[in-house]
Amino acid sequence: MDVKERFEIIKRNTEEIVTEEELLQLLKEKKQPSVYLGTAVTGRPHIAYFIFVLKLADFLKAGFKVKLLLADLHGALDKTPWDLLDARYEYYKIVVPAMFKSVGADIKNFEIIKGSSFQKNADYFYDVLKMATYASVHDAKKAGSEVVKQEDNPKLSGLIYPIMQALDEQYLGVDVQYGGTDQRKILMFAREYLPKIGYKRRVEVMTPMIPGLTGGKMSASVESSKIDLLDDFETIKKKMNKAFCPEGEVEENGVLAFLKHVLMVLKQDKGELFEVKRPEKFGGNVSYRKYEEVEADFAAKKLHPMDLKNALAEEINELCDPVRKAMKGKESLIKKAYPS
């Protein structure tokens, strides 16, 4: 795979790369660059996490060393109770590799790193204090505004969060940080403030946030907006049946968004078709090779929302199956990580 091919596979399905020129230069200069994505161990992972799994799989295909930061201390800074951090870390540590297995990714150049394994060392803490002398309260608050839970009387922890995320780029020794577009302000904060304390700025890659099943962002804290990775087929079908998917409407449609950013990417990579089964009196079964074909039929009201939902529910059930199997017999861990 040449530089152009590696660049294109990283760029596909992204919303923004800051900057594309820096990424191209990196690919020319380094045979195996490194990238990290950080996820705080907060709510239970749901199907929208497949977006970052697929993009990290793209980085692996492009010859990157991929590091997944399971950010336990960031979880605490974003209101995860301290006594649940270890159990939630263990939960994520089992679930995420099962998601990579589900999409068929080769993970020989993939590693999971626990945030507290390096964020408690003296040099890291020194740099947190050092960056805090450069960053204003305004900039730190703005950086975390779309990631850290907001409240009327905010905790100091919300200001520390973006400083630590910026420093993670340096202490993980990576060339690229990847995240969703909700992370953009923190990623730009990192590019601005790392050079102020003597470190280089990194390339920042972002993919879009997909709408939830009820519209708006898919969120672990809003049960009706998401499908949990451990949901059984009946639960998946029930949630899909209730999903916001008005006939002919494409915008803010979480069903179509998941199809576009996850399922059809997988189908195209595997050379498979997306099959929608329906009775002959409603047009019979129909197959799609590209997402654009599905969207065109849906917008033209040639594909009914219920037929689309039923087909997608089956595909989601298949994707979740390896995760459910990985967590089978670990009910005590599930209860310990998420007691309520």
Task: Walk me through the structure.
Helix 10 links the parallel strand 5 and strand 6. The protein folds into two domains: 205 residues, HUPs (Rossmann fold); 115 residues, Tyrosyl-Transfer RNA Synthetase, CATH 1.10.240.10. The mean pLDDT is 94. Helices cover 50% and strands 11% of the residues. Helix 5 crosses helix 15 and helix 9 crosses helix 10. The radius of gyration is 21 Å and the shape is globular. The chain contains 15 helices and eight strands. The chain has a six-stranded mixed sheet, sandwiched between helices. With 340 residues, the chain is α/β, with parallel strands linked by helices.
List the helices and strands and how they pair.
Elements: H1 3-11, E1 16-18, H2 20-29, E2 34-40, H3 49-61, E3 65-71, H4 72-77, H5 85-102, E4 110-114, H6 116-119, H7 122-132, H8 137-143, H9 157-171, E5 176-180, H10 184-193, E6 203-207, H11 233-242, H12 254-270, E7 274-276, E8 286-288, H13 291-299, H14 305-327, H15 331-337
Parallel strand pairs: 2-3, 2-5, 3-4, 5-6
Antiparallel strand pairs: 1-6, 7-8
Helix pairs in contact: 1-2, 5-14, 5-15, 7-9, 8-9, 8-10, 9-10, 11-14
